[in-house]
Amino acid sequence: MKTERMMTGRGLKGFAWVLTSLAMALAGTGCGDECVDDFDCRDKGGAPSGQHYTCVENTCELTSNSVPDAGTETDAGTSTDAGTTTDAGTTTDAGTTSDAGTSTDAGTTTDAGTTDAGTTTDAGTTTDAGTTSDAGTVTDAGTETDAGTGTDAGTDPCESATYDPKLGTLQLQTGFVAGESAPLPSSSGPVGVTPGPTYSLYTVVSEGYSGPHALYSLGTWPQVSLGAMPLFDVAAPADRSPSAVLFLSSFVETDGQRVLTGYTKSGAGFPGSVGVYDIATPASSTYVSAPSNFSAGVVPGAFLINGGGLDTVSAGLAIYALKTDASPFTALKVGTLPPETGGSGFTAVSTNGVAVLGYYSDDTFRNEGRAVGPAAISQALTSGTPFVVADGPALDVGSNFVAASGHGEGVSVVRGDYVPPDYNFAGTDVSRFAFNVTNDGATVTVGARQPVLVYVDQCTRVTGLTAIGSDLLVGVDDKRGTRLVRIQQSPQVR
């Protein structure tokens, strides 16, 4: 069943935190209900081992899986018992079938009086194959070996897997190296990083749908720690009542002077706002109406917002810009999404100014992305005439993807899909696409997909991506905890 949540680009959700460009579902089913059927519960993310989410009375609840036990499915003692099915003593008993003393008794036919062949030699009495050797009694496969007792299919393979201290079970591919890593506080939400050269980190901490929802400092990379006090209330004043139910957007974007956050609410068009926190002058922070805000990115002089409107500009699902190069800020539509757009998608900007602008396609039922060059973006910001997103070259991802981030002169995405019956996301890899920009920023060529990290199992999961300078900051989650890992390109790849 296609619900309102499916009308947005599908994002990776279900852990305590997600990183910049990692999308959440925008809201419930439209009337405050959490779900209509089990498919809606996919946004809860990965359930604990041995359980899955089920929609019960419009609420997603954990239900235990039915785990096959090899002893129940196939028990050698029950299904095939050598002593019962084939018992040499019962089926074929040489003494009963052919008894030389009974069938032919030499003493009756010819009785010498002294020697009776039937009495002296009775093959049935002297040698009875059924009595001497009974295969069913000596060896009973069901008793000696019970496959159900020896091996239980419910054992969690992740308990015995080998984990790298940084990447867990993920495999780093040729051309990339793992740099510093840092534990991430459990209460952290999406993470944003300033342009550098000193990388300051910010995150949103939320106490559930009803809040409070606040922006915090996470320190300076790689010394990551949650600040003692909140910096900014993510919710606009009108949405801070105890009864307000907010759905935080999955981005924290910063241009080094300001930090952008967002949220939506249930209702027609998913009303919501973005908050702009002024780092140097917190009193100058502000809020701007932004229905269906789903993802965002930073370009010179503006924040790009992939959503349903911005401030007083309302043109449906499109790419909007909040221009920050003058005060007060101004909003305008800068990009038109394709007609097959069924929902907002992901936004990521490379260091050479290319913006990947995404949408959920009703034709392919996947997230799609197009690469728009810096010249087209600059012209739209100046003239107010939107560019056509579909005019940019497509990323040949080859599957669905659920996160995107700038990664040097290119972008990286998390590939995979939602897998039945529970529709939890199963990742396959993180892959990078390099961009070559020519013709004064008007022409973009997208390179072939290059794997960065590959899943060998689902024991370690990528929970988000965000740029840190020209490198990639990857969120990793497994039984060792949540952490951030900096992935750098080898010198020959840069």
Keywords:
494 residues; mainly beta; Neuraminidase; 6-stranded antiparallel sheet; 5-stranded antiparallel sheet; signal; Lipoprotein
How would you describe this protein?
This protein is mainly beta and 494 residues long. It has a single domain, classed as 6 Propeller (Neuraminidase), CATH 2.120.10. The protein is 13% helix and 37% strand. It has 14 helices and 30 strands. Strands 3, 23, 24, 25, 26 and 27 form a six-stranded antiparallel sheet that branches. It is globular. The model is unreliable at 1-32 and 66-151 (pLDDT under 50).
Mean pLDDT over the full residue set = 80
Based on DSSP secondary structure assignment, what is the total number of beta strands?
30
- CATH class membership: Mainly Beta
In terms of quaternary structure, what is this?
single chain
CATH architect. name: 6 Propeller
Mind sketching the topology for me?
Layout lengths: L50 E6 L2 E6 L5 H4 L2 H4 L2 H4 L2 H4 L2 H4 L2 H4 L2 H4 L7 H4 L2 H4 L2 H4 L2 H4 L2 H4 L2 H4 L20 E2 L3 E8 L7 E3 L6 E7 L6 E8 L2 E2 L7 E2 L13 E2 L4 E2 L3 E7 L7 E7 L7 E4 L5 E5 L2 E6 L10 E6 L6 E7 L4 E9 L5 E7 L4 E7 L1 H10 L3 E2 L11 E7 L3 E10 L4 E15 L4 E4 L3 E5 L6 E8 L2 E8 L2 E9 L5
Parallel strand pairs: 18-22
Antiparallel strand pairs: 1-2, 3-27, 4-30, 5-6, 6-7, 7-8, 7-9, 10-12, 11-12, 12-13, 13-14, 15-16, 16-17, 17-18, 19-20, 20-21, 23-24, 24-25, 25-26, 25-27, 28-29, 29-30
Protein name: Lipoprotein
Keywords: Signal
